[in-house]
Amino acid sequence: MKKTIILQLIILATASLQSALAEDLYHEVRPLMHTFVEIKAYGTAGTPRIIDGAFSEIQRINSLLNNYDPESEISAINKAAGGKPVHVSIETYRALSDAKAYARISRGAFDFTIAPLVKLWGFNRENPGPINPEPGNDAIQGARQLVDYRALHLQKTSRAAFAGLPRSGMHIDTGAFGKGVAAEYAIGYLKEQGLKSALVAAGGTITAIGLKPDGKTWQIGIRHPRVDGSFLTIISLRNQSVSTSGDYEKFYYKGGKRRTHIIDPRTGMPVSTIQSVTVIAPRASTSDALSTALFVLGPEQGLEIIEKEKGVEALMVTTSGEIVYSSGWPQKKIIY
Ligand code: AMP
Ligand code: MG
């Protein structure tokens, strides 16, 4: 009799230990940064609280970097353009110095001072639509004069960091890399809190850590640029990030032409040769910035740059539906 009770107790104790160790999938979606942000993580009962902390990180970074928020540090830099550099947090300083590096790598195809051109083509509006009349050459060249990432002044001492734009009218737009930076902070937080398997998806950027408890990788569907709800391909992510830039995100038609939200700083015109670009990179801020850069550069120049970057791969779909990918692109099964 006694023996059976002890055995039963042992079985019960083992079962409860197993359930305490078993990892469940926790999942939450919140509307943030003008998109939906999704966090998935395997963990135990404390995981929802950690996920909540990761969402707070996204909000914290967004409140520094969002150029549409008048209270953000980027807005402070924009307001002070033409005057003295302003004091910024280390997070803003780092995001801008990384952005400057991506601008340099892409030879200015990715340029975070693109805002005057974004505004000229109406893509600063919530629901962009055709502009009447379309911007003329003088207006385009005028706005182009204000676009130059090299002019951003960045300075850091042991105690403080500063950023400034030298000419009035210059304006930073973080649309091409801010979500990547925020996702990077969120995944960093999940890792710091001890989670081993998690994913953060913010708009077109997805970043993942670890393997699922069953040993499988996180599987990510890459959206077909013309067939809603359909995938071009499925890739595996393991401690990597992926970002897609698409001409379907924000666009309008004018005079039979599709005008999309990514603008070539070299011509001042919306890019019309690409449907989508997907970039895989070790960091979310890298994949986000470089997907926009490659959208502007196109297959030839874009892939030339990507081949030199360690751990970075790209898949591009041109306007004619041609598929091009870098030499180490992991998934050759692509259905267009
Ligand atoms: P993404 O979806 O990451 O490719 O970012 C697109 C957004 O970046 C646009 O909506 C603009 O706000 C901004 N943008 C447009 N053209 C450029 C460019 N050439 N370089 C940097 N940012 C850009
Ligand atoms: Mg981007």
Structure description:
With 336 residues, the chain is an alpha+beta fold. Helix content is 34%, strand content 26%. The chain has 8 helices and 17 strands. The protein has helices at 2-21, 47-65, 73-79, 90-105, 115-120, 137-144, 178-192, 284-306; strands at 24-32, 35-43, 86-88, 153-156, 161-164, 198-202, 205-209, 218-223, 231-237, 240-246, 251-254, 257-260, 263-264, 269-270, 274-281, 313-318, 323-325. Helix 2 runs antiparallel to helix 7 and helix 7 (178-192) packs across helix 8 (284-306). The longest helix is centred in the last third of the chain and has 23 residues, at 284-306. The structure holds adenosine monophosphate and magnesium ion. Adenosine monophosphate is lined by residues 110-112, 114, 118, 123, 173, 175-176, 204, 245, 249-250, 261-263, 265, 288, 291-292, 295-296.
Comma- or semicolon-separated keywords:
binds magnesium ion, 8 helices, 34% helix, eight-stranded antiparallel sheet, 336 residues, globular, alpha+beta, binds adenosine monophosphate
